[in-house]
Design a protein that fits this description.
alpha/beta; two-stranded parallel ribbon; 14 helices; five-stranded parallel beta sheet; about 45% helix; about 325 residues
Length: about 325
């Protein structure tokens, strides 16, 4: 990668991050990781308590890019056809016409995804994994830029359906926003006293620039030692005591691609071990399933990954 290109990619990241931070306060790391998912062609699952800004963050990102954006509010009665689309008979022409669903967009916000039934949730599997959908036996390709941000509230269980392991594995990262500091929350109150700052956001990058950024991320150099390091981290989850299901090779791929995006954001043409360690918990933890005894004892998937990071030697 040319130095000039590296600087260009770094500039795109800074521009996007600054635009989103107009609305989202105190979430620099989370914004960085969501943009890494966008730049590496991965999808993001935001899980946190109600009112922490999950939906607002997704909308702020969408409004920062001159691209098509659609939102689906997931509910128990939502059907797969409400997401993918449906063929409707046209009596005048005596043919079936396809009415495309909201999945045919650039940025898709799947709000409260765990409120829909497993059947409806699975409608997103093919689109997230392969960038295509199958309707009435026909395969239709989605847009070149197709990015899903899904949200869910972990504290609500009534009327919700936990995402199955296969769908969790489709998300490159699972992120949590958390609560902001006292001073930042006061700033939020002041900014929203008369109007919401989300209404002031305008696009700062184009769709073509995001596609170019994705191509740039793919060219970031990765040393063989760091590839082995990433594989060792993921492999260790399959051997760890207390884990009934470890991470798949899809986790290794997501770890590699998001680390490449972070390198571009840091104006580097190569990834470092720091990039891998920075993102590992968010890429790997949500893919793990603990056995009942480990769960009962208070162990968490995040703790498991953090422990693995301490035990696997870092390449010199």
């Amino acid at each position: 990668m040319e130095e000039l290109n590296s600087q260009w990619g770094h500039g795109i990241f800074k521009r996007l991050a600054a635009n989103i931070e107009i609305v989202i306060k105190g979430q620099k790391d989370c914004i960085r990781y969501i943009l890494a998912g966008l730049a590496s062609n991965g999808h993001i699952l935001l899980e946190d308590n109600p009112g922490t800004g999950k939906t607002t963050l997704a909308k702020a990102l969408a409004k920062s890019i001159d691209a098509d954006f659609k939102r689906i509010q997931f509910t128990p009665d939502l059907l797969p056809s409400d997401i993918l689309g449906v063929s409707i008979f046209d009596p005048a022409q005596k043919i079936f016409k396809l009415h495309k669903g909201p999945v045919f967009t650039n940025i898709l916000l799947a709000d409260e995804i765990n409120r829909a039934s497993p059947r409806t949730q699975s409608a997103l599997l093919e689109s997230m994994a392969e960038g295509q959908v199958t309707i009435d036996g026909s395969i239709l390709n989605l847009e070149d830029l197709f990015f899903v941000i899904a949200t869910q509230n972990p504290v609500e269980s009534s009327g919700t359906y936990p995402l199955p392991e296969a769908q969790m594995d489709r998300f490159a990262m699972q992120l949590k926003l958390g609560y902001v500091a006292r001073k930042q929350e006061v700033a939020i109150l002041s900014e929203q006293q008369e109007k919401h700052p989300i209404n002031t956001i305008t696009p700062c990058v184009t769709l073509k620039e995001i596609l170019r950024l994705r191509q740039m991320v793919k060219k970031v150099f990765i040393a063989e030692e760091l590839k082995l390091y990433m594989v060792d981290l993921v492999n260790k989850t399959r051997e760890k005591t207390g884990i009934s299901l470890g991470a798949s090779p899809r986790a290794s791929i997501a770890l590699m691609k998001t680390a490449q995006a972070l390198a571009v954001f840091d104006n580097l043409a190569f990834i470092t071990a720091d990039h891998i360690q920075e993102i590992a918990v968010y890429v790997i933890a949500h893919r793990l399933i603990l056995d009942p005894q480990s769960t009962f004892s208070g162990m968490t998937a995040r703790f498991v990954v953090e422990d693995i990071l301490k035990t696997i030697p870092v390449p010199v």
